[in-house]
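Lecture notes, unit on protein representations.

Consider one protein chain, 225 amino acids long.
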Amino acid sequence: MHIGLFGGTFNPIHNGHLKAVEEVQKGFSLDEIYLIPSALPPHKEQKNLADAKNRMEMISLAFASRPALMKSVTVSDVELKRSGLSYTIDTVRHFKSILPENSRLYLILGLDAFLEIDTWKSYMDIFELASFIIIPRPGTESSGRSGVLESIGNYLKKSISHGYNYSFSQSCYIHPDKQPVFFFDVSSMDISSTKIRKLVNQGMSIKSLVPEKVEEFIKTKGLYI
């Protein structure tokens, strides 16, 4: 089985996230993608962070509006159930322990987050356990595939291991002992959670940025005002 793990604050989830999930699932023929909202993200400010249960509910509402996509998506509360800060290594180890032994894990990660992964807890262990699918951060423009690949390659050699080299036949960075690192250029959408929070706070519409049920939930709960 090929399993994707897509974590983040999803504060809130938006149409850019949904598009990325859809394209990554198809591009890598993933059997399932787990959407994993973080309870207490160690690398993000807690200011304007909606309650974890509300963020998880918004994820469920978002994918309920896409029944075809929902067939291959599961919303996981594994980080909500765990006390303390939400560390990716703990989540990866959790899924390694519960999935069939032959399952292959793919950690889906925005480019900006990946380029800071050497600041994460036990980050070298993650490279032993899961492949990476790096995508442009929603709401940002890609600087071109060749430029992004170069920045990823430079970072891997500087901060992870000189053993990483790009394989044109496999379209990824490979290593003799660690898991491969892919870059997947999903469709660009001018949407970000930060932009949505600002619009809500200013009393402006977010109708085209999030699914209708998510917009309704934000209004009902009075989030981000």
